[in-house]
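Predict both folds.
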Amino acid sequence: MSQAYVYEEGGKACAEEGQVMLDGPDGVAVSMTPKAAEDTARELLRAACEARNQLSTLS
């Protein structure tokens, strides 16, 4: 998967009125339920581990 730009900085998350708000680079903003945020967190960690392993096999 080719991307025009890969961000070096992560987003910031906070809780407001029972929702999880995620602010990312370039004005990306997402509002999620707690369950959706937990699911997303697990998926991000899984994918980050996979990507790190891919980088180690490239060098």
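Second protein follows, with its predicted structure tokens after the sequence.
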Amino acid sequence: MESRVTLPEGRYGSSRARPLARRWKWVLTGVGLLLAVAIAFVAYRNLGSAPIESESTAFSPVGADAVRITFTVTRDEPSRAAVCVVRARVLDGSEGGRKEVLIPPGESTISTVIKSSGEPVTADVFGCSYQVPPYLSTEARPTE
């Protein structure tokens, strides 16, 4: 015993919703997949392992206004030159000095002296990059 209620036709509109056209479903699915791939790529580039990692292995004072730091650099491409920024810290924790250090291809252990505005108590590696500024590059520059 099935009872169906029939509504007046012009008063309430169609009783079933119109589905999206089949091609619009495919277009929206494609756009969603492209968006998901773009998000995954950006996340991999930003959250994946760093191409250059550094670790401070030793530091020692060199007079009252300088400190020597020794650090190791691990690169995914050891044949490429890199640059690392090292810094000296004074007693209150503020930065007393900073220096950019060229890391030649193939080298992994570096030692350098950082001048400081105050008496340094520690030194650390701020960060490293493959983007070596021209003034640090050892490659021959074209004459102008």
